[in-house]
């Protein structure tokens, strides 16, 4: 059999009608809002009606620090859910929505791969049900109302030099990182510097993903700080009377999207904050809904466990009162060899020395989950044909030293059948009692929280405040925000803030250069290193290979 691309495999799938998938999930049709035959939104009123139903178990899938070799976290998440179904378990999967930026850029989509995908793959990776467009519209409505307020007399005395609210677009576009707006005549607004964030970095994305219902959504929107007045006091979206209109734009986006895996497992896909510049988890609403409808919910968090899992556990679980039953850490032998210094072109060759050098990256993630967060975990090795027995044995031996089992995952090639061994270990782990704890406590100062993450999770010597962060931390504490959790914006490629430091670096400090409060989302954002909230396109964007024929069939999409 010749090689098939992900999109070719997805297009061969004979999907079930979404009404059938809803029945499998236990969703009554009265909650279902269909978007064609294969997609639907589920009304959040289901959560109120199911309030007395006990929650199922929650399983988090995370990974080592990503490399050009690929790890396959979403693929493993989907394949594990299909594997659980093959064991006869009532299981649902909850994933993030892909951003158009990476789809047309370099990273790729977020629908899984091979025979472990969610479908309709093209829809999911493109406009889907319009959630991101609604988020962008709400974000930019607030920006327009803010600038209009200043133009119309500025009754709130907003200082144009202290505006913190940026516009957003769901595309990688470095040209929009730093712009000047308001050029032209007197009626064209105030001239000032501004910038765009990618939609997934917008606070509105975080607000949507952390809101429990429409009332909570509106209250969070009202708390968003857009800037400061001439007296140094914060100005909010509520002060601009924007929250009602913003919530009106977001009311349907707040409803989780229901789709299916290639094998017909129900899947909720909802929300999509990046984990390197935002909090990296799908919506609380979708996760809770899946937990009410199933005995096992398999979810994922973005990038490596130092980013996505840390934020899932320290932010999402803290805010939503969730306790995971088990954690899966995905790795590949190829990626570990890359962490050991092997070039991408040479990853197919057996190299136990490089694997030994790269393994500390995996082992540090395992140690963090097991000993910082006190959660049971299993390592899933995403299998490649080039992996040798000696390499797989070495990974297993090193993990066993930490008291953690390794399961070979063959879901890319075999779908759910290739995830049965992993599923069996996950079921076993879910029966273990755990003493889940956070990496820091609410009563710590902002500095102490960042330091705790840096020392306990990144294994750095500590943090260093540079530039604006020195005065910003004092301003945020003076404004009463010190009790909020911290969302670290950091490179995904390393435990450190330097993307070139692979493996498990030591003897370094994390530089925090900018701090801001996302008062609606309910956390402090700390920007470290050279991290940006608007990515750029690569030299050869994926967009160059994407096409559509006269029948509307898309090609080149992975």
Question: Would you give an account of this structure?
Answer:
There is one protein chain. Strands 1, 2, 3, 4, 5, 6, 14, 15, 16, 17, 18 and 19 form a twelve-stranded mixed sheet that branches. Helix 4 crosses helix 17 (420-430), helix 7 crosses helix 8 and helix 9 packs across helix 10 (243-250). A hairpin with a 4-residue loop joins strand 12 (225-229) and strand 13 (234-236). With 558 residues, this protein is an alpha/beta fold. It starts with 5 loop residues before the first helix and ends with a strand. The protein has 19 helices and 25 strands. The radius of gyration is 23 Å and the shape is globular.
What keyword list fits this structure?
twelve-stranded mixed beta sheet, four-stranded mixed beta sheet, 19 helices, alpha/beta, 558 residues
